Amino acid sequence: MASSISKYRPMWNRRRAKVWGSIMVLGSLMLSTCDTAPPLLQQVQERGKLIVVTRNSPTVYFEDSNGPAGYEYELFKGFADHLGVDLELRLPKLFSHILPAVQTQEAHMAAAGLSVTLERQQLVRFGPPIQEITATVVYQRGQRKPRKVQDLVGSELEVVGDSSHSERLRQLQQVTPGLNWVENHEDDANELTYRVANGELQYSVADSNLIAINLRYYPLLGTAFPISPPEKIAWAFHKSADLSLVNEAEAYFAKLKQSGELTRLQEQYYGHVKRLDNPGAARFAKQISKNLGKYEALFKKAAKQSNFDWRLLAAVGYQESHWNPKAKSPTGVRGIMMLTRITAKELGVKNRLDPEQSIMGGARYLRNLYDRIPRDVTEPDRTWMMLAAYNVGMGHLYDARTFTKEQGDNRSLWVDVRERLPLLNQKKWYSQAKRGFARGREAVEYVENIRSYYDVLVWHTSRLEDEPNKEEDDEIFDDEYEDEDPIPDTTPSTL
Fold first, then answer.
1. Residue 226's pLDDT is what?
2. Segment 324-375, tens digit of pLDDT
């Protein structure tokens, strides 16, 4: 059976990206440009195909186990659907080939995380902005942190060739003549960021959205200073008098903003990325190495029975207890999945300190909550609301959904319900709620933390897929646990 997590997975596999980049080449098909040709929008619709040149990147487009994904991919796939045509992707080997594909009309548009710059505006026409980023110098934490452009003089600095970063560095070089750098035409910004975090490269420049994602995966990655003011990210079109396709893109984005879909996508891919800071990422990486192996088999067993991705269950377990089977809170919840005594009794869990009982019980509880979420809530929102209910209770989640509807937003979207959960902390609002006070702010942080941990676990396990198989230890765990007062067997009721 499929996992309850659907397309949401804002991470990617570098090896897969390189394979895609090497096997996908620009076609030689030239789109008609003669004066008598119909408007480009009409050509696209009559042909039934929108050709988009893009690139593999965790911020643009990538393939995961469920197929194509990525913030920008969701947008240009939606644009093709909006036009009622199929989507055809072109992935050139080099970043520098992207804009020429639009200029020579081998593609109808480019959607590749392109910053709007003065040089590029001389080559192509940009559509409406889809995001705002800042180009920022990155370094390895613990090493010398540069604080201004002059600190980069005489250093090892490498950026993506023919990128907006190299364009900005050329501008800075005019006032700082000693500034030099290497333009890398083989590796992308994600790879350069990885090399910096691992100490293989002293400095590089990356966009703030990519940095925000990678800070969770690379605990030693540090941000130094921006080399540019905030820049717009937009799609690129052919620089011609025919504005039909550009105008339709503007209408499409206006529709997305009005419906709230653009906000939902931004939240899906970026709403949680700042939750896991460098120290938190470092601690999590250490725990993955030290303790996850003890309980991985149990999480996989529980996932098989509850039909969840085992990494989601592991992320919940880490948020609850840092995978400590003896964990205990001041309120009396205990074990890896931090079950209350009442919940454990209803789940048939006799000993909350037994890792297997705790993990299996927590997974059953999550499945129960997932199945109780109203059917109009789809993925990934359904999973995020399930997690909120695990933390704050289903009744309080319903209260937040009620406030969301009363205030004119969509109670089936996590991005809208998330804004109302903190109201349950305030007397003005919880006095009107059916279930009263709840720690709604904590529930929001709880969900966002798990989302970050889940992303890191997906990234971590994907990297391990490329390593030789190792024999698994016979022992599932080696920690001793103390007995609790036994809880009688009961038949689980509706929780």
1. 96
2. 999 887 667 899 999 988 899 999 999 999 999 999 999 999 999 999 999 9
- Cβ contact 365:343 at 8 Å: yes
Query: Which residues in the chain land under pLDDT 50?
Result: 1-30, 32-34, 468-495
Q: What burial class does residue 477 get, using C-beta atoms within 10 Å of its C-beta: 0-12 exposed, 13-18 middle, 19+ buried?
A: buried
Q: Which domains does the chain have, with CATH numbers?
A: 14-130+232-270 (3.40.190.10), 135-229 (3.40.190.10), 278-464 (1.10.530.10)
User: Tell me: the pLDDT tens digits for 264-286?
Assistant: 888 778 876 655 555 667 788 88
Predicted pLDDT of residue 483 = 39
Annotation marks residue 320 as catalytic? yes
On the 0-12 / 13-18 / 19+ scale of CB atoms within 10 A, 96 is middle
State the CB neighbour count (10 A cutoff) for residue 226.
16
Whole-number Å distance between alpha carbons of 399 and 395: 6
35's CB contacts (< 8 A; 6+ apart) are: none
The DSSP annotation for 307-341 comes to TS-HHHHHHHHHHHHTT-TT-B-TTS-BTTTTB-H
Determine which helix (DSSP H) or strand (DSSP E) holds 131, and give its type and residue range: strand 125-133
Residues with Cβ within 8 Å of 312's Cβ and at least 6 positions away in sequence, in order, are 3, 4, 5, 303, 383, 450, 454
Torsional sign, CA 58, 60, 62, 68: positive
State phi, psi for 88 to the nearest 5 degrees. -120, 125
Q: Which residues of 383-415 are buried (b: 16+ CB within 10 A; e: fewer)?
A: bbbbbbbbbbbbebbbbbbbbbeeeebbbbbbb
For residue 334, list its beta bridge partners.
328, 339
Catalytic residue, candidates 231, 248, 320, 448: 320
What span, in angstroms and rounded, lies between the C-alpha atoms of 165 and 158? 10
Side chain identity at residue 62, one-letter code: F
